[in-house]
Design goal:
The complex is a heterodimer of chains A (about 350) and B (about 500). With about 350 residues, chain A is mainly α. Chain A has 13 helices and two strands; from the N terminus they run βαααααααααααααβ. Chain A has a domain of about 210 residues. In chain A, α4 packs across α11 and α5 runs antiparallel to α6. Chain A is globular and about 70 Å long. In chain B, a hairpin with a 2-residue loop joins β1 and β2. The chains are: A mainly alpha (about 350), B alpha/beta (about 500). The interface between A and B is large, with 33 and 39 residues. The site of adenosine-5'-triphosphate has 20 residues of chain B, from β2, α1 and α14.
């Protein structure tokens, strides 16, 4: 008889392998479900791969999904470093988008000046959106999961109000959206803009911030043991607030890039669930900044697959279910990585 | 050896870079209390973790009543009747005693109510002679009460073998005596106990047989009747230990007052007054001992002195400077080191590595941080230095600190704090969890700090230890200072009375 046994520590490679295998298992199970539902899975898989990687057009689409997922994933990962769950990436994304739109429509200047200003506005918008939850968490110990989540719904309604009311572009007959923002990000490829480069750069900045600065050490220690951090002389409350503001700000920059770089207008639904998917990215990445890149790429491929698959009659919900499976299997894989098979000794 | 309740044969367990258990044999007889002794890092906790299914041995076998068994998880060991109470309690602090006892237990009725669980808990407590309050929340309990809950949890699940890892380290003498009575009752039923401790006198009194480990190997198993402290110490260390010398020095020039409390009152976590009108001063170059039964305000006293707890009344002065805010960073900058009571909760971040933990008090200044930039290389160098100084046994500098043995964690914290204690050191139970050799080293380092002109406030429950090293002794009872004496005038009887709250006749 072979038995399972639990070990207390495993090496980093086992963890990585567990992640990869979990994702593969999720795709297999998802594929099996699709097959049962009557789809020709190998054909679908083939077209997804071709649609994403074979053409410049597909790669561009992938890149446009990749960049906001990096940032919303980074936002959630940053909060995880100090042990907080920022579920409000969605709302902060919108807040950043709103702030960038208002700035872009009302301030005028040369593009090289305006772009950093817009990014700053996006950051400030996202940070402002998380300010109240951050203060409530730090001073009243009110759970940030609930407060950040609830503010998402407020943000969605606010965007809808702005787009159908004060900011509505009368020239647009069908959809309600703001006027076009008169600034653009320089292109990387045709449609793909430099937002992707900026997102990757921000990942590196965060990695350095946590590993190589005093502030980063303080945040890591506060996340690992709040009592010990206080004892070590760290102003834990201040760090909690700062980290949440940084997290919100990153999500806000994602909103700014989306509205300035990709959509060019503020309108409802532009968040494309990036805020929520960012939480999955952060979990897949284990809260590690650099690991956000592969995790966000995976999520982007799945989302992109959704677009491709819609052409074959697969609904968006079925694709979202696939992302859920990936998360579920990753969580299971994380546990299972600590088990070994063993043969019993002969008595 | 079919008479043995449990028999371990050739148990070997290695971790990357070291062998924690090397071919260890051990047999446990029905009706005995079996003590396990050894220096810090000798492998005691590891061996017990193997026996309880937390770790899998690399080699070796386990027999129960002569039948080979294998425990893939703690659940298997519990099912086979082996229960363990760990060095660090694992209760859920927000739950009641009754809830903790029933948590994850297959005998817990499907439909329950608070009343039902409390009734069942009361019946269990009576059956095993362990006084607990079923409706109390664990966070409100003393260490001794929490431990009884842990033991009850284990016994309720039908344990026939009870393992206790340093159970008396956190107990008051009265609580320890009650524990020993409960254990005697348990083994009288034909069950067995394994008992880990560093207190040789206690071991000699409690144990029937004693097994000594050294550096992962078993050195001997002996009947307690054939042992004395010197013999055990020699077995543990592998050489003769000099008699524990007194560390008090002769006449010295005392420095100015470094720590001072004037009329200080403070509350505990629940807002109940824990310190009442405390006046206390420590001068540079002296050691002031604080005697008292645990839970009489020691924790609050040390926290007020290190900036972790605000005062409700009175003044805290460090080197003459009034400290207006309870801010640990300011106290650190003023040169106060603090060996806290509960190292895993407040002194260390168990999931972070040795390096990050070792630099916890010096991270913000050069060489570790320069211009806001944290240098992992410099942190590692400093951490290596601290680890070497304190003779901490570490697998490697990147290992999480929770993988260190209990005594090694304590050494790390103590050395780290001594480095930053330029003015004063507040040391709470600094020898807790240390083996006898390490206790001696620790007391010697504390004496050296005193000789260098640092003021030391030493909180301890070991009266002998206090009287052996302190210049003056203060007695704490229910948050009040009952008296302060030069050590020469402090007879143990008198102090014992004060510790029990008996005020002195004038
Ligand atoms: N999970 C682990 N990973 C790596 N090393 C470990 C692990 N657990 C224990 N060790 C190492 O094994 C050795 C023995 O540790 P153990 O905890 O058994 O000592 P101990 O005898 O209980 O000491 P103490 O009296 O200090 O509690 C130590 O050097 C410790 O660092
Ligand atoms: Mg131990």
């Amino acid at each position: 008889m072979i038995r399972l046994q639990r070990v207390s520590t495993v090496g980093p490679w086992i963890v990585v392998a567990a992640r990869v295998l979990s994702v593969a298992a999720a795709l297999l199970v998802g594929g099996a479900a699709f097959a049962v539902a009557g789809y020709d899975v190998p054909m679908l898989a083939g077209s997804v791969v071709r649609g994403s990687f074979d053409s410049l057009f597909g790669l561009e689409d992938l890149g446009l999904l990749f960049s906001p997922l990096i940032l919303t994933g980074l936002a959630a990962a940053v909060a995880l470093r100090i042990g907080l769950w920022n579920i409000g990436g969605e709302g902060q994304f919108y807040a950043g988008a709103i702030a960038a739109t208002l700035t872009g429509l009302n301030l005028h200047g040369p593009t090289p000046v305006m772009l950093p200003l817009l990014a700053l506005a996006g950051f400030a918008g996202g940070a402002a959106w998380v300010l109240v939850p951050a203060l409530a968490r730090a001073f009243l110990a009110i759970d940030e999961i609930i407060t950040t989540l609830l503010l998402n719904f407020v943000a969605v309604l606010l965007v809808n109000y702005l787009c159908t009311g004060p900011l509505r572009d009368p020239a647009q007959a069908v959809t309600s959206a703001s006027a076009r923002i008169p600034y653009e990000l320089p292109p990387l490829l045709d449609d793909l803009h430099w937002g992707l480069g900026g997102s990757v750069a921000l990942v590196s900045v965060m990695a350095v911030l946590f590993a190589r600065t005093r502030w980063g050490y303080e945040v890591r220690l506060s996340g690992a043991n709040r009592h010990a951090a206080r004892y070590a002389g760290i102003p834990v409350r201040r760090r909690l607030i700062q980290v949440l503001l940084l997290s919100g700000g990153l999500a806000g920059v994602a909103g700014m890039l989306e509205v300035v770089g990709t959509v060019h207008r503020l309108q409802g639904g532009i968040s494309n669930n990036y805020g929520y998917l960012g939480i999955m990215v952060a979990v897949l990445a284990g809260g590690v900044p650099f690991a956000v890149l592969p995790a966000a790429l995976l999520m982007a491929v799945i989302l992109n697959a959704g677009t491709v698959l819609q052409a074959y009659g697969v609904s968006n919900y079925e694709v979202l279910a696939l992302t859920g499976l990936v998360l579920l299997f990753t969580a299971m894989g994380e546990r299972i990585a600590y088990y070994r098979l063993s043969r019993p000794m002969r008595a | 050896m079919s008479g043995a309740v449990v028999e371990l044969v050739g148990i070997t367990k290695s971790f990357p870079g070291l062998i924690a258990n090397d071919a260890i044999d051990l047999d446990l007889r029905p009706g005995e209390i079996h003590a396990l002794l050894g220096e810090n890092g000798a492998g005691k906790s590891t061996l017990m973790n193997v026996l309880t299914g937390i770790y899998q041995p690399d080699a070796g076998r386990i027999f129960m009543q002569g039948v080979p068994v294998r425990f893939a998880s703690p659940k298997d060991a519990v099912a086979a009747g082996i229960g363990m109470v760990h060095q660090h309690f694992k209760l859920i602090r927000a739950f009641t005693v009754a809830e903790n006892v029933h948590l994850g237990w297959q005998d817990t009725p499907f439909r329950t109510s608070a009343g039902l669980l409390e009734g069942r808990t009361r019946a269990l407590a009576e059956r095993f002679g362990l006084a607990v309050r079923p409706e109390a929340r664990v966070e409100d309990l003393s260490a001794g009460e929490q431990q009884r809950v842990e033991i009850l949890r284990v016994l309720a699940r039908g344990a026939r073998v009870l393992i206790l890892d340093e159970p008396t380290a956190v107990l008051t003498p009265g609580e320890a005596a009650a524990l020993v009575r409960a254990l005697r009752g348990f083994v009288a039923l034909g069950y067995a106990v394994i008992f880990i401790s560093h207190k040789l006198d206690e071991v000699l009194e409690v144990a029937d047989r004693i097994t000594v480990l050294r550096a992962g190997r078993k050195v001997a198993t002996l009947p307690a009747a054939e042992c004395d402290q010197a013999r055990l110490a020699t077995l543990m260390v592998g050489r003769e230990l000099g008699a524990g010398q007194r560390h008090s020095a002769g006449k010295r020039q005392l420095g100015p007052i470094v720590l001072q409390l004037a009329g200080v009152s403070a509350n505990d976590e629940r807002g109940v007054q824990a310190l009442a009108d405390v006046d206390l001063a420590v001068r540079g170059g002296e050691i002031v001992g604080v005697a008292g039964v645990a839970g009489n305000g020691q924790r609050e006293l040390s926290e007020v002195l290190t900036g972790l707890r605000p005062v409700t009344e009175g003044q805290v002065r460090i080197g003459g400077q009034i400290m207006h805010h309870a801010n640990p960073a300011e106290f650190l900058a003023a040169g106060i080191g603090h060996i806290p009571e509960d190292r895993l909760r407040s002194g260390l971040a168990p999931s972070m590595n040795v390096t990050d933990n070792a630099v916890m008090r010096e991270y913000s200044r050069p060489p570790v941080t320069r211009g806001g930039l944290f240098s992992p290389g410099a942190a590692m160098t400093l951490a290596r230095h601290i680890v070497a100084d304190a003779q901490v046994l570490v697998p490697n500098m990147r290992a999480p600190v929770r993988n260190l043995s209990g005594g090694n964690q304590q050494r790390l914290v103590a050395r780290r704090e001594m480095r930053v204690a330029g003015q004063a050191l507040v040391a709470v139970y600094p020898t807790r969890g240390l083996d006898i050799g390490a206790i001696d080293t620790m007391l010697r380092s504390i004496a050296e700090m005193r000789d260098r002109g640092v003021g030391v406030l030493l909180v301890s429950e070991e009266l002998d230890e206090l009287l052996g090293i302190a210049d003056r002794v203060a007695v704490l009872f229910q948050g009040r200072i009952m008296g302060v004496f030069p050590t020469a005038e402090a007879e143990p009887e008198r102090i014992g009375l004060l510790m029990g709250g008996r005020a002195e006749a004038a």
